[in-house]
Amino acid sequence: MQITESTLSLNVPDVGASADWVREHLGFTQAMAADGFVSLTHPDAGFSLVYLRVGLASFKPASAAGPADGLLVAFTVDAIDAEYERLRAEGVEIVTEIETEPWGERYFQMRDPNGVIYQLVQWVEAPPQS
């Protein structure tokens, strides 16, 4: 199998709110949009983000058409402390303050207007080898 592109698709009540949030705070750009749908890209993300309005009749399978819940969208970044200060200054809702795990992962988490949780991570020590 050859994968040519990767996309993370999230069902949210307000597509525009999440799309605006990732454009403003995470630097994504809109690739395409239609009623109840927007696709965004970022040159460093490795995948596209798609937001679909909850309840779209065209969503398949219908049993999975509810809102994204329990999902965490994570990005590894450089200069985690600077990103944390920048996003706090922009008024982003921080739901987990910045902290460092014993295994070397420094991170914080934030919430967009639809409740989707995004995590920024920087490895301050090399992850343990298994």
Automatic annotation (TrEMBL):
Pfam family, one: Glyoxalase
Highest rank taxon of the organism: Bacteria
Entries under InterPro entries matching the protein: Glyas_Bleomycin-R_OHBP_Dase (IPR029068), Glyas_Fos-R_dOase_dom (IPR004360), VOC_core (IPR037523)
Gene3D superfamilies: 2,3-Dihydroxybiphenyl 1,2-Dioxygenase, domain 1
Domain VOC: 2-123
Stated name of the protein: Glyoxalase
Species in which this protein is naturally found: Occultella glacieicola
